[in-house]
Description:
By secondary structure, this protein is an alpha/beta fold. It has 2 domains: 139 residues, Aspartate Aminotransferase, domain 1, CATH 3.90.1150; 274 residues, Aspartate Aminotransferase, domain 2 (3-Layer(aba) Sandwich). Helix content is 37%, strand content 15%. The strands form 3 sheets. A 7-stranded mixed sheet has the order 4-10-9-8-7-5-6, sandwiched between helices. The chain has a 4-stranded mixed sheet with strand order 1-2-3-13. A 4-stranded antiparallel sheet has the order 11-12-15-14. The two termini are 45 Å apart. The structure holds pyridoxal-5'-phosphate. The site of pyridoxal-5'-phosphate has 14 residues, from helix 6.
Amino acid sequence: MAPFPHTFSSVPAQADPSALLEAGNEHVWIHASSWRALAASQEGKRIMVEGRGCILKDIDGKEYIDGLAGLWLVNVGHGRKEIGEAMAAQAGTLAYASSTQMTTVPAIQLATLLSELTPGDLSTVFFCSGGSEAVESAIKIARQYQYLAGFPKRFKIIGRRGSYHGATFGAMSVSGTRQMTEPYYSPFMNGALHVAPPYCYRCDYRHTYPACDVYCVDAIEQLIEHEGPQTVAAVIAEPISASGGIAIPPPEYLPRLRQICDRHGVLLIVDEVITGFGRTGKMFASEHWGLVGDIMTMAKGLSSGYAPIAAAICRPKVVEPFASETGKRLSHLLTFGGQAVACAAALANLDILQRERLVENAAAMGTYLLEQLQGLRSHPTVGDIRGLGLLIAVELVKDRTTKEKFAMDGEEVKTLNTLLLDKGLLTRATHIIMLSPPLCITRAEIDRIVEIIDSSLTTLEQQYGYC
Ligand code: PLP
């Protein structure tokens, strides 16, 4: 596929790979990477030029299986021309209208469809451009809702350790990965509190399920009571936290969390930014537990990455204080919220997801992938394998008894990443190998993923003496 010519840049799209790499090193700030180190290594910084289904090709012609669907989002797979065509048609008709005083036809169509697809009575959609904005919006909606509902002192938001909700200030503050950002950005948003996650393989309380009676969720109620329910606006939780290690919560956890929030007048924000749109084998992961959040955040798979679009969808109860004629307006505005071309992309994406029954495929292929991965248990470094649908983790340990982790920046992790990449698998591997491929994946591609991990672990174990 020939790259689109760029008339105004001094770097033509057809420039030779080394010239492009040099210009990229100089001018593109890669997110959240040691980018100077990447720039120094030809291998580390790749220029991707083409994608088809689960396969990506770089500028040198090397092909990779996209084991992470980009960053957990290309749910319908790469190279879907019909999405581009829908976007071009919308751009040629109307690309943008103000997000404050009007809306557009694709925004109405998409919001209506989302209210039909999401569980329960979630029905009013606040559009944004990315997951962080969706979470930031949900936090502000929750706090203003509580204020308008007569509880001006309810400002605290409870999140969980290990979770990730985004990079904007509020989203970062409620995330449980704050230790990575602490030195640079603290103090964080006032009132952001954290509890232990339902991570049974490494329980913070050293408990074992089911004897624990899911104490980790009762601990949330204890925290609410300790802080004073009249100070707590919301709890935020991903149904399954990817950053937290793809730990599947015990069956009682989320239903009980719903009851706890209801008992104390606390809103429940369910963050489905990764788990939404078929990733776990249901349209939304909430459905596995009959869960309905008061606000649900969504992004990534909403457009499968073809356009930056996200949303916070709310129940009527949450919208009510804003919606009546005497109601107050939400003091929150995003220029790109509901941008028409992005909405057209999302509509075309969701059409593919439903027409090709990709949610069902995610359930079937997820079961197959989990089964095939079981063979890896013979590796001494494999501590646990878990997942739901096509959201799967292979957790590595130095020692199965102590469960000692590989250091994030250690030599073993670097070697493992190089091995996986050389063999053509794009994924994210720390002490956990994350698997979250496009939902259109085939059995043959799954077999290849498992082979690559298997042979990479064999080499790693031989090299570092873990045999
Ligand atoms: N929420 C969750 C659960 C996420 O995993 C992420 C990103 O990975 C976000 C929110 C933030 O989304 P974005 O990176 O689109 O801002």
